[in-house]
Each structure stands twice: as C-alpha cells, then as structure tokens.
Amino acid sequence: MNSYEGLSLALNEADDYDIAEKSPDSRYIRYNQVLDRGGGETHVVYKGLDIVDGTEVSWNKLSVDDSLQAEERLQRLKNLLKAPLKHQNVIKYFSSWVDHETKTINTISELFTSGSLRQFRKKHKGVDMVAIKNWARQILRGLCYLHSHNAPIIHGNLTCENIFVNGNTGEVKIGNLGLGLAKTILEEQHNPVVDVYSFGLCMLELVTCDQNPKPDGLGKVKDMKTRQFIERCLCLVPEYSVSTRLSAAQLLQDPFLEETIFDFYERSTKFRLTGESRDENSIDFTLTWHAANLCGRARLEKIEFVFYVDADTTTKVTEEMVQELGLPKEDTSTIGDLMDNWIIKLVPACKKPSSFVKFSRVHADPTSVC
Q: From the record, what ranges are coiled-coil (predicted)?
C-alpha cells in the first residue's frame, strides 16, 4: 500500500461513484467535471482534489500520439515537468506523470476559480488599459523567470487560454506549462522568442477581445502607442527583426509599460518586518508591504517564514523571496538589512548574521486596504 492509499480508502463508497480517476500515488482524485477544453478533445481540464490537504486542484489531461513515446524525448519532458518552479506569476505544479496505456500526459496544479484570462476578459468588456498593462507586466515577469533558467524553459503555447487570473486580486499566472513544453520539446523549439511573439498576440487579444488574434488584426487597435508596443513584440517594425526580437526582460523596461500614478505602489514598496524567537535556533518572521490591486489602490501583502540561525542566510532567503514574489531586485538589500537587525536583536551571540539562508516557508495572505 502506498503512502496515500490508506487515506484514499477512507473515502466512503458513495464517493467512489463520483471519482473518475486517481493519481498513481492515490493522493489526487479526478472528477468528471470539465473545467475547460484547452485544445479541443486533446486537452481537457478537470476538477480534482488533493485528499491530503483537502484542497481542490486542476487536473490537466493531454492526449498524445505515438511520436511522444520516444523514450529520450519523453524522459526530457518528464524531467522538465518535475522541475521546481517558484514564482508568483507561474502556476504551481504539484505532480505530473505520463500514462502510457491511455497515452496521456497528466499534470496536477493549483486551481484558479476565475478561470483563464480569455474567459475573464470576455466577461469584463470594460477593463481599463491600466489593468491590461498590469496583466502584461505580470505575464512578462513570469516569462522572465522561465527564460532565466540555465536551460531556458519555453512555454511553447502561450495564449490567454493558458494564463489564469484571480478576479479578486488581479493576480495572473502562466499555466498549462507542462502541456506547452510537450509541444515545444517535440518540435525542437528552444528559442524564447517563440513566447515573446505569443505574448504579443496575447496583448492583441486583451486589447481587441478577439479570441483568435492575428497580426493583421492590429488595425483594430486604435491607440497608436498600444499598437506600436504590440508591433515591437511581433517584430512588425523594421528595427525589430526576428533575429533581434526583444526579450521578455527588455519588454518589461519598455516605456509603454511604465507604471502610472495609479499603480506606483508596485515599485515604491514599504516593508515592515517583525520577528519572534521560536526557540534558541529559529526565528519566526512576518514581512508586510504595500502593493497595488488592479484599480491601483494600495493593498497590504503579508508572508510568514522561518529562519534557522545555524543553517540559514539572509542573502539567500531574500534573493529567493524577491524572485518568488516578483519584487524589484533592489528590495533584496532592504529586506536583508531588516532581517539582520532582528537576528542581532533576538540572538545576541550573533554579532554578524549567518551568510547562508534557507527559505523555509512562505505563506501569502493579501489583505485589501482599499
């Protein structure tokens, strides 16, 4: 019996009629409730449940053909799907496996109840350009993170259908990553410009609400600055050829995406750190700061984590924290200084904080102050 089978058996027999499938380790169960069909019959998203945490999850199934059974490519795909991806603008993946009998790739990820950005945009026609720019920055930050790996991770199928939104906070995350990687790997497309071009089409869709965006649809974009930005993404202007297409990091610095007075809190964050000794070897930290929601109003964000004095470092923990939360890099030293002061205060023997940090636990708890 595997580690979760006992818990699985605890589900009563009546529930079994609603359960369509279980993961190999029996931790995740799939229901027949279809949440989305991302690619017709080949890609179906179901609602699932993590029976250990008691939380709903997204269960993605991608049907594949025999070409995927080539062991070398299949192993590369499985390795990429297991890569730990931690960024606030990338969907969290919990498990993945390939079912050879049914020829399907299965991925378990966090569930966004507001659905895809395509669905959300279709529902909300009157979204302001400020909100669209906020979404654009978040998508690009997610791409920057993926492309910054030593072996860049290419989504390969970036569309508004594969980007998910939290309608309560305006947070967006790139999803269906494993499914995009499957196509990317098999077609041997390893260049990040593939995702940059797709991002340009996503922008075109968000601006025009055209769910089948094509470059020749730019005529629908009335605002000249918006159109020029999308053209730069798609390399439709002479100075930006395919070989010199801007990277996601470069697009983030584009003047078009500069924050306005409505969302200045994203960059001018103010931090407050509190610390409390858990025991002589560890400190419980709580960091709060101001960010901005879609309407540009301030909201309070909070994370909690544990610092182990004899094993951890402020440098490492702040670098990982800033990367995962998508904060400006210049905030690394600010947060690090706050931690150093608390460590010296709570652990008198530590005249100089440890130089190695382990990011032990992060818990996001956004609280609106609008």
A: none
